[in-house]
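call fold(seq) -> tokens
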Amino acid sequence: MGCNRNCGLLTGAIIGAVLAIFGGVLIPVGDNLIGKAIKKEAVIANGTIAFENWLVPGSSVYRQFWVFHVQNPSEVLDQGARPKLEQRGPYTYRVRYLPKENITENSDGTISYMLPNVARFEPDMSVGTENDTITCLNLAVVAAPALYTNTFIQLLLNTWIKASKSSMLQNRTVKELLWGYKDPFLNKVPFPLDPVLGVFYPYNGTFDGLYKVYTGKEDIKKTAIIESYKNKRNLSYWEGHCDLVNGTDGASFPPFVKKDQILRFFSSDICRSIYGVFQGKQDVKGISLYRFTVPREAFASPAEVSDNSCFCTDEVISKNCTLAGVLDISACKAGRPVFISLPHFLHGSDSLLHDVEGLSPNEKEHDTFLDVEPITGFTLQFAKRLQVNLLVKPAPKIEALSKVKKPYVFPLLWLNESAVIGDAKAEMFRSKVTGRVQMLSVLQMVLMITGSVLFLAFMGSYFICRSKKLK
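ret:
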């Protein structure tokens, strides 16, 4: 009888130990199985989950615009006063809803494609209509002295500006400012040029690319990394490392993302590569994500972050490369004095905020983030926020700019391009990816805990019975 009891207790302990060991063994075995499954589905190849999400976004992408309306136009024009700005918006457009085009699989483990540019107004998500009128900078007049520095040419420009009755400011509809209008000043210029201009003109019907990215078939660590952009590995806008096309396009990253990683991505909107650093965890529709944000250092002055020195192109405007928070992308915009920043000059130098009135930077509303699912590397939620500005400079030979007292960066608008994974895609993602991983993790823990409890319980009982028997 005693033997049977002791044997039973020992058998139970052994079973518990086996279960605990099996649970422990499942960790590397399970991780290996998960790794193989992810590597199979994360490559950009027809039939994979990655390809479905890569071909066309798995969620609706919206671009919201807030335009800056000048509240004191008379004082600005007559006295050179600081502009008082009021942001109006959002005016919302749906973008990125067409699939990639000209897709070509290459023999070197890459795939090429073009991104179609399209924007469709969403009135139900906007504060008004595209025909709302605002007072804003005159794009052509302000850009003229930057494009033509010769005194004689500026005198000619002044003649045509006056003939067209143009000034430093103008009244335009939201649609005109964004997508293009026929400018009266440019229409007076007796040379062959396109008189139509707008902040994003031309856009609809155009393409971004050619992009060439690694599929990950040959090396999973290179999945979605851009091999070249417009058949080049550099941009020809900057010097040194600043000119390189780095990382992915931000829609996805190589799988198995770690918290201590720096995620690099290229944005053609700002004509440079940029990066995100880990900020914290997010839960989106039951999926655990890593949030990466663009840090303050990315737009810091070269005086603070020496790696940014190759983004300093004008020592006068940048105050000997000490100005933080703005990026001169004129080389990318055919010489037009376009400066990019975060909205409301977030993380910018105080002087930027002092040159205009009405801005109030706020990290929660104005920073850029990517929420990445760490196992697959897919970006399931993001908000890309940036501000478009023009450099306004004194030009004594151009009467419309004669009251400008000093060069300063004038905000035109800011945008928020954002998306979050749709419900159907989230359900598919939970069932095919995160759900299986969680189920395996739970199974591992249950086996280890149950096995350990059984082992300890039966072994404890065995020793108690044995000690009683000895007495």
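The first strand starts at residue 61 and ends at 70.
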